[in-house]
Design a protein that fits this description.
Distance between the termini: 63 Å
Shape: globular
Radius of gyration: 21 Å
Oligomer: single chain
Number of helices: 6
Order of helices and strands: HEEEEEEHHHHH
Number of strands: 6
Largest sheet: 4 strands, antiparallel
Strand content: 5-15%
């Protein structure tokens, strides 16, 4: 297998991760939106003190290359956002590796000029992805985006908003918590040596309770529907 084939295979696995990860809802510090097979929009929420701006970090530069055309366009309004900062994580087949673009303007954006928005950002995670032995996952990229986006990065970048789940209808809660649990368990196993591993485990316990709390309503409704269908069939006979 050639190097190009190996990179294409790795990118395919990366995009599968994007698809699964992009379906997870309820994160406290960011939200995700799938835009096509190759693009994942990441919105990093403003912190509690209302400061959705990038910190000054030496690594946060743009790639100086003319070989990469711009990705999908900026947000249509072109206005500075108060709710956070929007990024585009894309894994275009042509390049066989992921890149990240800034996709919103912020009032205080350190290290990146607005004119540079058409060039991908130079990040530690995307740089490491080019190493053959590196195992960079899409959530690693999102974790770095959170760390460079907020004046005070959260202790647990993948913290869940439990209030969000508690407000859902039982059927939606059952499905949404299932997706969140699948991600949290996988992440916990991969990041047991991180400072926030205990926080991940705590969220797993809390979301598990919400998941199983919704289960009786879901399966009770399904059983009632089947029972009603059976009764209708008996009457027809």
């Amino acid at each position: 297998m050639t190097k190009g084939d190996k990179n294409a295979e790795r990118l395919h696995a990366f995009l599968k991760d994007c698809l699964r990860f992009g379906c997870v809802k309820g994160f406290k510090h960011f939200s995700l939106y799938l835009r096509g097979r190759e693009e994942l929009v990441v919105s990093v929420h403003a912190s509690d003190d209302g400061s959705p701006f990038l910190r000054t970090m030496p690594s946060l530069d743009v790639l100086n290359t003319s070989s990469l055309p711009p990705a999908s366009p900026l947000m249509e309004s072109g206005a500075a956002l108060d709710f956070g900062t929007v990024f585009l994580v894309a894994g275009y087949a042509r390049y066989k590796c992921p890149y990240v673009w800034l996709r919103s303007k912020t009032r205080r954006l350190h290290g990146v000029s607005h004119d540079a928005s058409e060039s991908p950002l130079q990040l530690r995670t995307t740089d490491a992805w080019g190493d053959a032995g590196a195992n960079v996952r899409v959530w690693d990229i999102v974790e770095e985006l959170i760390s460079v986006s907020l004046a005070t990065p959260p202790a647990n970048p993948f913290e869940l908003d439990l209030e969000f789940f508690s407000q859902l209808e039982p059927f939606e809660s059952y499905l949404t918590t299932a997706a969140a649990l699948n991600f949290l368990r996988k992440t916990y196993l991969l990041k047991t040596d991180t400072p926030y591993a205990a926080a991940l485990a705590a969220d797993i316990r809390q979301v598990s309770l919400l998941h199983f709390k919704a289960a009786p309503f879901v399966f009770g409704a399904v059983s009632a529907e089947h029972a009603g269908s059976g009764d209708d069939g008996a009457d027809d006979e």
